[in-house]
Amino acid sequence: MPRPGRPVPAPLTNAAGRQYDNTRKRREEGRMTDATIETASATSEDEAFLFELYGSTRTEEAEAWGWGDREREAFLLQQFQCQQRAYRLQYPHAECRIIRCDGSKAGRILTEEGPDEIRVIDISLLPPYRGLRIGTALLRRWQAVAAVCGKPLTLHVLRANRALRLYDRLGFRTVSGDEAYVAMEWRRGTPIPG
């Protein structure tokens, strides 16, 4: 639930303000500029989708294990449940939002607004929606919210994650890190690339 007084990112629509039914064609062409991208608070009814999304982020890793479908599914479920508990403990005020592209569930973004920052805890997209600038559009929205609130937008990312290049392009700067992770932030006044 958005906090009172905090701007809520507006839905993205095409120039005409309407939805299109050619999402598959745009996916195949690698362009989503005229897609409607919206987010809505996750509910308990989204749990199965969130598990599917989590599993999709670990597909390559899970296939390398050489396990059968049941073993892999059981392990991923256990890992998903652990991640959910860890997020609830570490970020008790986090807001989980389901990302929809032209009405279809495409991913999730998990954020938390604190007194000194707005943190992007996790952003994940199903494979058909990756590389289509959906993440770019969402992060630009959050940059605008952070600018209005006068707070930095922060995140942590694995050094090996391809999204690191996206964050660099959007003006995020490394503020700390270790062998595995990089802490990054974007501050008001940092240009948002067009």
From TrEMBL:
Record's compositionally biased regions (Pro residues): 1-10
Name of the featured protein: N-acetyltransferase
Pfam families: Acetyltransf_7
Alphabetically ordered keywords of this record: Transferase
Domain called N-acetyltransferase: residue spans: 37-193
PROSITE patterns in alphabetical order: GNAT (PS51186)
InterPro entries tied to this protein: Acyl_CoA_acyltransferase, GNAT_dom
Organism whose genome encodes this protein: Paenibacillus flagellatus
Region ranges (Disordered): 1-31
A molecular function GO annotation: acyltransferase activity, transferring groups other than amino-acyl groups
Basic and acidic residues biased stretches: 21-31
